[in-house]
Write a structure and sequence with these properties.
heterotrimer, A alpha+beta, B alpha+beta, C alpha+beta, A: alpha+beta, Butyryl-Coa Dehydrogenase, subunit A, domain 1, Butyryl-CoA Dehydrogenase, subunit A, domain 2, Butyryl-CoA Dehydrogenase, subunit A, domain 3, 4-stranded mixed beta sheet, 4-stranded antiparallel beta sheet, 11 helices, 12 strands, about 15% strand, globular, C: alpha+beta
Chain lengths: ~400, ~425, ~400
C-alpha cells in the first residue's frame, strides 16, 4: 500500500519490512500509552487488583471506545482490520503499564478461537460483542496435570440426546471468573494424550453444573479453576469441527505467544529503564553505583536481552499470519524460547541491581519481575520450546 | 526528491546489466564500468561512483547481479571502512584519489590503530607523528594489522600532541604503505593462519594533504571507522564467498580472493559456522541424540534473534540514521552465537573436532572453529569493551572513573613495552 | 587426604537423622514445604527440643552450651536440618549475637542472655542495614548519644528480618560521628524492642509474606550497660559476627531439599514422551545441580579443614566463595522447582480461600514454589551481595 514511496520501503534479503511505525501506528501507540499512563500507575493498578472483579470496567470501556478491542478483527464483524503490527503496538504498551485487563483472555485467545473456528453467525455475534466491551470470554484448556502438553485433555464431552454433556476440571483459566462465555476444550474421542479427538465448545458461564473458583494469580491477574459436572450445552455449541480442535488450540496458543512476546518487550524495556535510572541515582561508597563496571556490564547484558526479545517479537508478529503450519510452529517455538530467556535475564537482573527494594511490593520492579516470571511460563517455558524445536527440522 | 519504486530500480538495473555484463571482460575493466555507472555501490553519492539510491533498495540491485551472475565490487576487507571514513571525513582530493581504486579493488588497505601497548584502550596510541620540514614523520609500532604486507594504503591513528589529553592529541592520516620506513612482520595465530602483522614505522613519511580532518580530530574520525567495523561484525555478513562460475573473469576474482582475502579465510570459522551445523549433525548421526538436538535448538534460537537484531540495525541504517553505538549490540550477539556454535560443533563431532587434515570433519574446518571462535569476543573491541559502550553510550550510565581524563597524555601511566 | 565422611561421621549423621525423624513436630514437618513456612511457634518449639537435647548451639563454647563437635560434625548437623527440612535455628540468636556475646560480652550479659538465646526465650533480630547503607554498611547513620547512664538512639534500620517477632535487636549505631574512618565510630548495642520510641513497619515483599521490616528509633533510651564490648569497636564485632560459622552459609541442604522436591513433582507431570522426571533435559539439569552441589560441598570441607589448621578467628575470605556459589545454587534449585511446576505456579495463596474450605490438599505442594523462587532472588543480595563477595575475593584472595 505504500510500495510507491521509496522512503518507507524496506527491503532486506527478500523480506520487505519496515521497523519504523507509520503515522497511523505512531498515533495508535501514543493513544494507548496515554490511556495507560493516565490509568495505570502502581497505586491504581493495586486498587484494581484488589477490586472484586480484578479488572477495571472503566479502562475496559475506554479500550473499547478507542476501538482497541476490535482492532485486529475483520471489519465485516465490526473490527478495524488491524494487522499483527498494530496488535504488537497495543500489547507492548500494555506491558509497559503491566495491564491486568482481560485482553489476553477475551481478545487474543478467545478472539482467535472465534475468528479461526466459528461460523459466520457466531463470528458476527461474538466478535462484535467482545469488541464493544460488553462481553467477556475465557479460554479453558489447561488441566491440573497437563503442564505444557497441549494434547493432554481429560475433560470429556459426549453427545446425548442432541446435547453435549461436559465433565472434567480446568485449571488456571485466565479471567475465567468474570467471563460471560467460556471456550472449553474437551475430548470427544481418543486417549488422554492424543492430538486427535479434541473439540472446542462455547459454554455460557452461567450454565448449570459449572463451579468456578476464582483467585488472583502471582502477577496480579485473575484466574479460575473450573469444574464441569454434567454440563449440558446444545449441539451447536461446538466450535469448529468435531475431534479436530487440536490445530485450533495450537493456533490460539501461537497468537498467545506473539501477544505475550510483545507485552514482555514493553515490560522488559521498563525494567531496563528503571534499573538504569536506579543505578544512576543510588549512591554507595561515595558514588553512584552505576559507576561500577560490573553493574554496568550486567545492565548491558540486560539491554542485549531486551533487544533480542524485541527482534524476536517482531518476527513473531510477522509469522502469526504465516500459512505454512510447520513454519509457524517453528517460529513460535523459537519466539517463546527467546522470550523466556530474555524475561529471566532482564527480570532477575533488574531485581539484583535494585538490591533489597527489588523484592518489595512497594517498588514497581518486583511487579514487573512477577509478570515476566509468569510470561516465562505462559504457553510453554524455554525448555519446552527448545525440545519442540529440537524435534523439528528448521524450515530456514 | 526522486521517488523510485522497487520495480523501477529492478528494471533499470536489469537493463544495464543485460547491456553491460560480459564474463569475458577483464575484472578491472568490468569494475571500472561499475564505477562509471554507479551500479557497483548504488547507494553511494552519484558524484562518487554511486547512484544516490536509498540503502533499502541495494538488495534489489544485488539480486539482479546474482540473477545474471555478474560480479559485484569487492566489499570485504578494510577498504570499505576506508571508503566510509573518506566519504564522511575526507577532502575532495582524498575522494578523488582513493575512492575509484577502492571500488575497482585495485588498492589494498589496512588499518593502523592497535598497538602493543594499547589494545582495548585504542586511544592510548603512542605512535608519534611529528612535523619535520613540510612532512609528517611517523615513528612507532602497530599490531593486529590485517593485510599490512599487501596494503597500498594504511589508515593511521597517531599522536601529534603529547601535551593534549589522550583523545585530543591524536590525528588521523592516510599513509603510503609502500615506503622504506614501513616494515611489516606476520603474526602467527594458534589456528595456523597468519592474518595479522606487526607494522614498524621508522621515520615513515606522510604528506600534510594526507591528514584526514583537523589536527587533533583523530579519535573522532577513528570512531567512524570503528563503528563501521563493528557493524560489519554482525551475524549477517558472509566473508569472502568464492564464486563457483566458470570463466576468465571468475578465475581472476578467485585469484584476487585467494590473495587479498586470505587473511579472512578463517573468519567464517571465527563466526562459528552455524551453516554447517545441521549438515554435520545429520552426517554424524548426532541429530538422533536429544541432547544435541536441544543444543542445536538453543543455538538456532540465539541465531534467529541475532539475525533479526541485525535486520533492525540494517533497517535503521536504511532510514539514513547514522551508525551509532548499537553496532556493539550486533557484535556482542555475533560473539554469543559463535561461542554457542563452537559448543554445538564439539557436541556433534566429539573428539574428532580436534582433528585437522584430510580425515578430519570438513577438512579441519570444525577444528578451526574451535580454535578460532574465541577471537570473535576479542577482535574489533572485546565483549567487555562493547558492554562499556552499551552502558555508557546507549544506556547513558555514569562514565567509568577515568584516571586519564583531562591530563596531558605525557603524564598518564602507560605500558612500557611500546 | 580424606574426601568422604568417615564411618564415625556417618554414624553421627544417622543419629541426627533418627533424632529429627523422631522429634520433629507434625506441624513443623507439614509447614516445611509450604509458604510461608514455619510459624514463630514452630521455630521456638523446635529450638527448645534441640536445646533439651543439648544441640541448640553446637558451635558455642561448651561452657555456654556448645557440643564440642568437630567442624565437620557441625556442618553435618546443620545440613541435616536443612535437607529435612526442619525450622532453622534462629541465626540471629545462635550464629550472630550469641557468639558475639560469648566472645566480647561481659559476665552480666553472658549470664542474662546466653541461656535465653539458646532456648529462644529471647528472639533477636539484626539491625545493620539502613536505607542509605546497604552494600556500603559502614556509612550507617543511626546515632547513639550518651546522656547520663543511657544512650539516646535515633535513626532507621531497614531489611530487618523478623523484627516483628523479635524481643530484642542488636544494632550497629554511630557513637562517634567524628572518627577518622567511618568504621571507627560504630558501636554494637543491644536494644529491647519494647523500649519507648521503637517502631516496626513491615515491608511487603513479592513473595507474599512478611519477613522484613523497617525499624525506627525515635529518642530510644538504652542503658549504657547494653553495649557489647568497647565503645566504637562495633565494626570489629560485626566483622567477627559475619565471619563466624560461615561454612553453613552455602546452605547446601536447602538446595538438596529443593532438588529432591523438584524430582518428586516431576514424576507426576507429563513431558513430551512420558513423565517429566524421565525427560533427558530435566535429568541433565538435575545432574548439573548435583555436580555443583558436590563441588561446593567438597570446597566447604576443604575450607573447614583449612580453618582448623590456620587456627585463626579472622574471617577467611574464601568463605565468600561459599556464599557466592551457595546463593547461586539456591537460586538455581528454586528456579528448577518453579520450572517443574510450570503453569501450576500461577495461583496466589488466596486460592485457598477461593475454594471455601474445600481446598484440594495436593495443591498445597505447588503453592509455595513461586514465592520461594521470588524469595530466592534475595539470596544474592542479602548478607553481602554477590558483587560484594566477588570484590572480597578479588581483593582478599587475588590481591587485585
Amino acid at each position: 500500500m505504500r510500495s510507491n514511496v521509496i522512503s518507507s520501503l524496506k527491503v532486506f534479503w527478500g523480506f520487505k519490512m519496515d521497523f519504523e511505525l507509520s503515522n497511523e501506528q505512531q498515533l495508535l501507540k501514543d493513544s494507548v500509552s496515554r490511556l495507560i499512563a493516565d490509568n495505570y500507575d502502581l497505586q491504581k493498578r493495586g486498587a484494581i487488583i484488589k477490586s472484586a472483579d480484578g479488572y477495571s470496567k472503566t479502562v475496559w470501556k475506554q479500550l473499547a471506545d478507542l476501538g482497541l478491542l476490535g482492532l485486529s478483527f475483520s471489519s465485516n464483524y465490526g473490527g478495524f482490520d488491524g494487522g499483527p503490527v498494530e496488535q504488537m503496538i497495543i500489547l507492548e504498551a500494555f506491558g509497559t503499564g503491566l495491564l491486568i485487563e482481560p485482553y489476553l483472555a477475551t481478545i487474543v485467545l478467545s478472539g482467535t478461537a472465534i475468528q479461526s473456528a466459528a461460523d459466520e453467525n457466531k463470528k458476527s455475534e461474538l466478535l462484535s460483542a467482545i469488541s464493544n466491551g460488553d462481553h467477556l470470554m475465557a479460554f479453558a484448556h489447561s488441566e491440573r496435570l497437563s503442564r505444557y502438553q497441549l494434547s493432554q485433555v481429560e475433560t470429556r464431552a459426549q453427545l446425548k440426546n442432541g446435547n453435549w454433556i461436559l465433565n472434567g476440571e480446568k485449571t488456571t483459566v485466565l479471567h475465567g471468573g468474570i467471563a460471560d462465555t467460556i471456550i472449553v476444550t474437551a475430548r470427544t474421542k481418543g486417549s488422554d494424550r492424543s492430538t486427535d479427538g479434541i473439540s472446542l465448545f462455547l459454554v455460557p458461564a452461567k450454565t448449570k453444573g459449572i463451579t468456578i473458583n476464582s483467585y488472583p494469580t502471582i502477577d496480579g491477574m485473575q484466574a479460575a479453576d473450573i469444574k464441569l459436572s454434567n454440563v449440558s450445552v446444545p449441539q451447536n455449541a461446538l466450535l469448529g469441527e468435531c475431534d479436530k480442535g487440536f490445530l485450533i488450540i495450537e493456533n490460539i496458543e501461537q497468537h498467545g505467544i506473539a501477544a505475550v512476546a510483545a507485552e514482555s518487550v514493553g515490560a522488559m524495556q521498563c525494567v531496563l529503564d528503571m534499573t538504569v535510572d536506579y543505578l544512576k541515582t543510588r549512591t554507595q561508597f561515595g558514588r553512584p553505583i552505576g559507576d561500577f563496571q560490573v553493574l554496568q556490564h550486567r545492565a548491558a547484558d540486560m539491554y542485549v536481552a531486551v533487544e533480542e526479545a524485541r527482534s524476536i517479537a517482531i518476527y513473531a508478529a510477522m509469522m502469526t499470519t504465516e500459512k505454512d503450519t510447520e513454519k509457524r510452529r517453528h517460529a513460535m517455538a523459537t519466539t517463546k524460547a527467546q522470550i523466556g530467556i530474555s524475561c529471566r535475564e532482564v527480570g532477575q537482573g533488574g531485581v539484583q541491581l535494585h538490591g533489597g527494594i527489588g523484592i518489595t511490593e512497594e517498588y514497581a520492579i518486583g511487579h514487573y519481575f512477577k509478570r515476566l516470571s509468569m510470561i516465562e511460563r505462559q504457553f510453554g517455558d524455554v525448555e519446552h520450546h527448545m525440545t519442540t524445536l529440537s524435534m523439528m527440522d528448521s524450515p530456514d | 526528491m526522486t521517488e523510485y519504486t522497487e520495480d523501477y530500480v529492478r528494471k533499470e538495473a536489469r537493463t544495464w546489466l543485460e547491456n553491460n555484463w560480459d564474463p569475458n571482460l577483464d575484472l578491472f575493466e568490468w569494475r571500472n564500468k561499475l564505477a562509471d555507472s554507479g551500479w557497483g555501490l548504488p547507494n553511494w553519492p552519484s558524484n562518487w561512483y554511486g547512484r544516490d539510491l536509498p540503502v533499502g533498495l541495494v538488495p534489489i540491485v544485488e539480486e539482479e547481479f546474482q540473477r545474471i551472475g555478474a560480479l559485484p565490487i569487492p566489499k570485504s576487507g578494510i577498504r570499505m571502512l576506508a571508503a566510509a571514513t573518506i566519504l564522511n571525513h575526507g577532502t575532495e582530493m582524498h575522494k578523488e584519489k582513493f575512492l575509484r581504486r577502492i571500488v575497482t579493488g585495485e588498492d589494498v588497505w589496512c588499518q593502523l590503530f592497535s598497538e602493543p601497548g594499547s589494545g582495548s584502550d585504542l586511544a592510548g596510541a603512542t605512535t608519534k607523528a611529528v612535523m619535520v620540514g613540510n612532512k609528517w614523520v611517523v615513528n612507532g609500532q602497530k599490531v593486529w594489522t590485517t593485510s599490512a604486507h599487501k596494503a597500498h594504503w594504511g589508515l593511521l591513528l597517531a599522536r601529534t600532541d603529547m601535551d593534549a589529553t589522550k583523545h585530543d592529541g591524536l590525528s588521523y592520516f592516510i599513509i603510503d604503505m609502500k615506503q622504506p620506513g614501513v616494515e611489516t612482520q606476520p603474526l602467527k595465530q594458534m589456528n595456523g593462519y597468519a592474518s595479522f602483522n606487526q607494522v614498524f614505522l621508522t621515520d615513515a613519511e606522510v604528506l600534510p594533504d594526507f591528514q584526514v580532518s583537523e589536527l587533533g580530530d583523530g579519535w573522532k574520525v577513528a570512531t567512524t571507522t570503528l563503528m563501521h567495523e563493528r557493524r560489519a561484525a554482525d551475524s549477517l555478513r558472509a566473508w569472502g564467498q568464492v564464486p563457483s562460475s566458470e570463466g576468465p573473469i571468475y578465475d581472476q576474482e578467485r585469484a584476487e580472493i585467494e590473495t587479498t582475502m586470505a587473511p579472512y579465510k578463517w573468519y567464517p570459522q571465527r563466526a562459528g559456522r552455524v551453516d554447517l551445523i545441521m549438515q554435520r549433525a545429520k552426517e554424524t548421526g548426532a541429530i538422533k541424540d536429544p541432547a544435541v538436538r536441544q543444543e542445536i535448538a538453543k543455538l538456532m534460537t540465539l541465531h534467529k534473534s541475532a539475525e533479526w537484531t541485525a535486520r533492525r540495525a540494517r533497517s535503521a541504517q536504511e532510514q539514513g540514521k547514522p551508525q551509532g553505538p548499537e553496532g556493539s549490540l550486533g557484535k556482542l550477539a555475533a560473539s554469543n552465537v559463535a561461542r554457542a556454535a563452537a559448543k554445538v560443533h564439539t557436541m556433534i563431532s566429539g573428539a574428532h573436532s580436534m582433528l585437522s587434515g584430510d580425515d578430519s570433519p570438513e577438512n579441519g574446518t570444525v577444528a578451526e572453529v574451535l580454535i578460532s571462535f574465541p577471537a570473535s569476543s576479542i577482535a574489533g573491541g572485546t565483549d567487555e569493551i562493547q558492554k562499556n559502550i552499551i552502558s555508557e553510550r546507549v544506556l547513558d550510565m555514569p562514565k567509568e572513573t577515568r584516571f586519564d581524563a583531562g591530563k596531558p597524555f605525557k603524564d598518564i601511566p602507560r605500558n612500557t613495552i611500546s | 587426604m580424606e574426601l568422604a565422611f568417615s564411618s564415625e561421621e556417618i554414624v553421627f549423621r544417622d543419629e541426627i537423622r533418627a533424632f529429627i525423624a523422631e522429634k520433629l513436630p507434625e506441624s513443623a514437618r507439614k509447614n516445611g514445604g509450604r509458604w510461608p513456612h514455619w510459624s514463630k511457634e514452630d521455630v521456638v518449639t523446635w529450638q527448645r527440643i534441640l536445646n533439651e537435647k543439648g544441640w541448640a548451639v553446637p558451635h558455642w563454647p561448651v561452657e555456654y552450651g556448645g557440643t564440642n563437635w568437630t567442624a565437620v560434625q557441625r556442618y553435618i548437623f546443620i545440613e541435616e536440618l536443612l535437607r529435612t527440612p526442619t525450622p532453622e535455628p534462629l541465626s540471629f540468636n545462635v550464629n550472630m549475637v550469641g557468639p558475639v556475646i560469648c566472645t566480647f560480652g561481659n559476665d552480666g550479659q553472658k549470664k542474662y542472655f546466653l541461656p535465653k538465646l539458646r532456648n529462644l526465650d529471647i528472639w533477636f533480630c539484626q539491625g545493620f542495614s539502613e536505607p542509605g547503607a546497604g552494600s556500603d554498611l559502614a556509612s550507617l547513620k543511626t546515632s547513639a548519644v550518651k546522656d547520663g547512664d543511657e544512650y539516646v538512639v535515633n535513626g532507621q534500620k531497614i531489611w530487618t528480618s523478623q523484627a516483628h517477632n523479635a524481643d530484642w535487636i542488636f544494632a550497629l549505631v554511630r557513637t562517634n560521628p567524628n572518627a577518622a574512618k567511618p568504621q571507627m565510630g560504630i558501636s554494637f548495642l543491644l536494644i529491647d524492642m519494647k523500649s519507648e520510641g521503637v517502631t516496626v513497619r513491615g515491608i511487603e515483599t513479592i513473595d507474599e509474606s512478611r519477613h522484613v521490616n523497617e525499624v525506627f528509633f525515635d529518642n530510644v533510651r538504652v542503658p549504657l550497660s547494653n553495649i557489647v564490648g568497647e565503645e566504637n569497636k562495633g565494626w570489629d564485632y560485626a566483622k567477627f559476627l559475619l565471619g563466624n560459622e560461615r561454612t553453613g552459609i552455602a546452605r547446601v541442604g536447602l538446595s538438596r531439599e529443593r532438588l529432591g522436591r523438584a524430582k518428586k513433582l516431576a514424576a507426576k507431570l507429563p513431558s513430551f514422551n512420558g513423565p517429566l522426571a524421565d525427560d533427558p533435559q530435566f535429568k541433565r539439569k538435575c545432574a548439573t545441580v548435583e555436580m555443583q552441589l558436590k563441588s561446593l560441598e567438597i570446597t566447604i570441607m576443604r575450607i573447614i579443614d583449612r580453618q582448623r589448621r590456620r587456627n585463626d578467628s579472622t574471617p577467611d575470605p574464601a568463605t565468600s566463595m561459599l556464599k557466592l556459589r551457595g546463593a547461586e545454587i539456591q537460586q538455581t534449585t528454586a528456579e528448577l522447582l518453579a520450572d517443574v511446576a510450570g503453569p501450576m505456579v500461577a495461583p496466589t495463596g488466596q486460592i485457598r480461600a477461593a475454594y471455601e474450605g474445600d481446598f484440594p490438599a495436593e495443591l498445597e505442594e505447588t503453592l509455595g514454589i513461586i514465592p520461594h523462587y521470588f524469595n530466592s532472588r534475595a539470596a544474592t543480595i542479602y548478607g553481602g551481595s554477590n558483587e560484594i563477595q566477588r570484590n572480597i575475593i578479588s581483593k582478599g584472595i587475588l590481591g587485585l
